[in-house]
Amino acid sequence: MNRTAVKITDEELVFEIVKTNNTELFAMLYDRFSTVVYNKCYGFSKSKEEAEDLMQDVFVRLFVKLKTFKGNSKFSTWLYSFTYNFCVNYVQRNSYKKKEKVTIVTDQIKENDTAFDDIDDVSLLELKSAKLAKVLNKLEPAEKMILLMKYQDEKSIKEIKEILNIGESAVKMRIKRAKAKVVKLYQVL
Question: Is 187 helix (H, G, I), strand (E, B) or coil?
Answer without folding.
Answer: helix
